[in-house]
Amino acid sequence: MTWISFPRRRALMAMLVLLCGPVAAQSYPDKPVRVVVPFPAGGGTDVVARIAGSALQVNMKQAIVVDNRPGASGVIGSDYVAKAQPDGYTLLFTIPILLQTASAMPKIPYDPLRDFVPVTTLVSAPLWLAVSTSRVKATDFAAFTSEAKATTKKWEYSSFGNASSSHLYGHALNQALSAGMLHVPYKGGSAAVQALANGEVAAMWTDYPSVRPYVASGKVRIIASSGAKRSRLTPDVPTLSELGLPGFEALGWGAFFAPAGTPPEVVKRLQTEISAVTRNPDVVRKFADLGYEPGGKPQPEFAADVRADQARWSALIKAADIRLD
Questions:
Q1: What is the DSSP code (8-state) at residue 38?
Q2: Of the candidates 323, 293, 1, 281, which has an alpha carbon nearest to the alpha carbon of residue 123?
Q3: What does the pLDDT read at residue 2?
Q4: Separation CA 316–CA 158 (nearest Å)
Q5: Which residue intervals of the chain bear CATH 3.40.190.150?
Q6: In this predicted structure, what is the pLDDT of residue 253?
Q7: Distance (Å, rounded) from C-alpha 292 to C-alpha 203?
Q8: Closest CA to 108 of 68, 70, 67, 77
Q9: Which residues partner with 252 through β-bridges?
Q10: For residues 267, 292, 108 and 204, what is the CA-based torsion angle, rounded to 10 degrees?
Q11: Which residues, in sequence order, are CB contacts of 107 under 8 Å at separation 6+?
Q12: What is the pLDDT of residues 189-204, one digit of tens each?
């Protein structure tokens, strides 16, 4: 029996799919489409994937099956899709951790740029720099900077976990300000935000929905956000970019990827259908309630964003000397 390596097997599969691509695309999809979410059911990524899946199956007249395959910071589910047949019937819905783990883990079974085709974004959102009002007196970023440098007891900043976006932005801000803040990683956003609200840590980068109740109660104050422009959710909160601190322009996204070798016609059909979902008023309202902006970027533009984000996160991870087992 002749053994065929995974790269050769993938190349042969892609060749066969491309040969019949135009015919397949005409009837696509003619069976259920599996959307792999590499995180547990019930989390934010899973929730938005299911919202999209419900709308997609109406538009595409085919079942969309959300398949949760959590573990190893998203690697297990992502690897499953990387090795799936590139025919459009197995997709990945994930977040920038797809790129971050590739830089932070010494051994990973796929290359996020080589083994996936970015399709389009479903949602996007910045991160917000939030402070505990019981620990930090500052009400704006300039005062925060001065207070962080002047405090005799070093502040802490929490994160969703090592190598997460909140950790990387926290490290980058710490370096930019030469503030000497201590990183305290938590297992997930809920615990990290709770620590902020309780005053166990002084600051953190977080999503807006998680921190909104504590902002309303006065326990937490938001003083800045990432991104190139202000969020519609917090129009009075400036971005660090407009405050003159570059390097925080990247947005978080929830996006669809297909295995490398998926026929361009199928990728185009998926991008068109997903983009239509992001313009559905009911879907947009649900996303807004969760704190997300609708996506739907053209495929070439999103692919360019992925390459730029990979370079950005890789540089931050290298600078922070982060390694995940």
A1: S
A2: 293
A3: 47
A4: 17
A5: 32-124+251-320
A6: 95
A7: 22
A8: 77
A9: 125
A10: 160
A11: none
A12: 888 999 999 999 999 9
pTM assigned to the model:
0.83
54, two tokens = 């419900």
How many C-beta atoms surround the C-beta of residue 62 within 10 A? Answer: 15
**CATH class name, domain 128-225:** alpha beta
Q: Answer for the pair 324, 73: CB distance below 8 angstroms, yes or no.
A: yes
Give the number of other Cβ atoms within 10 Å of residue 214's Cβ: 21
How far from chain centre, in Å, is Cα 266?
23
Consecutive sets of 10 residues in the chain, 325 residues long: mean pLDDT of each? 51 53 71 95 90 96 96 93 98 95 91 98 96 97 94 90 90 92 88 95 93 96 95 94 92 96 98 98 94 94 95 90 83
d(CA 36, CA 46) in angstroms, rounded, equals 9
The pLDDT assigned to 320 comes to: 86
At the top level of CATH, the class of 32-124+251-320 is alpha beta
